[in-house]
Amino acid sequence: MSEPVQTPELFDKIVNLCKRRGFVFPSAEIYGGFRSTYDYGPVGVLLLRNVKDAWWRSMVQLRHDIVGLDASILGPPQIWEASGHLTNFTDPLVDCKECQSRWRLDKLDDPNLCPNCGSRNSFTEPRAFNLMFKTHAGPMEDSAAVAYLRPETAQGMFINFANVLNTSRKKPPFGIAQIGKSFRNEITPGNFVFRTREFEQMEMEFFVRPDEAQHWYEYWCATRFQWYLDHGMPESQLRLRPHEADELSHYSSGTSDVEFRFPWGWDELEGIANRGDYDLTQHARSSGERLEYFDQATNERYVPHVIEPAAGATRTAMAFLMAAYDEEEVKGETRVVLRLHHRIAPFKVAVLPLSKKPELTGPAQEVLALLQPHFMCDYDETQAIGRRYRRQDELGTPFCITFDFDSVDDRAVTVRERDSMAQERIGIDALVGHLCDRLT
Length: 440
Ligand code: ATP
Prior knowledge:
The protein has 440 residues and is an alpha+beta fold. It has helices at residues 8-20, 44-61, 77-83, 85-88, 154-159, 161-168, 213-230, 278-287, 313-324, 358-371, 385-395, 405-410, 431-439; strands spanning 24-26, 38-40, 66-68, 74-75, 90-95, 102-104, 127-130, 134-136, 146-149, 174-183, 198-208, 238-242, 254-262, 265-276, 293-295, 300-302, 305-312, 325-330, 333-338, 349-353, 377-379, 399-403, 412-417, 423-427. The strands form 7 sheets. The protein has a 7-stranded mixed sheet, sandwiched between helices. Strands 21-20-22-23-24 form a 5-stranded mixed sheet, sandwiched between helices. It has a 3-stranded antiparallel sheet with strand order 4-9-8.
């Protein structure tokens, strides 16, 4: 297998594949599209769900010290005042006086050069632009009804700290995990689904004794980095980059980013931050509630410190696609194959009757029904078998099951593996067990 080098050409091929095969469509396309929003199609919704499930599995299902939460997206201004978002969640915005284009100053390669018209020193003074989407809850559009769409899922965990502590029988070190949509009015969205105004996050807040915070920060940096490797990202395309002191958020005493080598350079998939006691202290002060832990064993009362691994589900799904994309020559033709880890692959199995004749499609659909309770399956009976294999390769499906004329008599099917294209004959009775072994 060749390892893909992320280039602008490869990026274009992936964007094209996403549209052609039903991963991602530009949103509101029949109305000309809508401002960097995207819809996940029949295959993309499976990919995205698998990324989120893989995260949930390792963060919640396989652990005894992390519980889940699904908090609301709409929230009152008090949350965002206490968290610091109303004052600090801003990006520096500049306008080009020559061509009127708008830019986020800290993301420009050259802060004096307009990337649109090439003018030098044509920018206005930077102004702080708040990224939160503001709306009104209820029929009155007055200030008492102001609400915000959350720009991160994290605050839902902090404001429910006491609820979770009182109901879950957890004590530090323990975590609260959440997956959900977040909204940021980004100045310059772009690079396909890398930066959008509506996106999904996978975040976990891990509450620890203050004197153990550094230990857990290092633990989560290593654990989260390993998660990407375990799910098929090549180590050569991934790095863990500690922030410089001047990059750190106002609350953070340490942050490291898991970065992927995108065509435009290394860029962030996930940030792991040591947030100290900032969040709980702020919400305790603003709400008047006690947000602390009383350790009965030692008779100590303290405000836990927080380690936060914050990842983007949509951005990570795109990086998985980019890392998996491969092209190879097979019998004089180019084969495009997504070498996705089986847990991330949209379909695990595709059932393909060799011909459209009812004596094959009928029993092939019985095989499909046998597999569906165990695996997400695709079924396809149109076109020549070779072209159907190629289609499944482009979707990243690890196994194709072909039901042919012999299958009717010998009650066996051909199992073709995506990466090696090796085929073997397996009895239908043994098929579920065989695939379970190979997919775990
Ligand atoms: P950036 O510096 O790229 O704006 P950030 O450091 O503000 O990102 P965080 O607040 O740490 O991002 O958010 C955690 C994760 O959420 C990011 O690592 C990223 O994967 C994802 N994310 C943040 N903003 C967006 C966005 N606009 N579109 C898609 N994913 C995003």
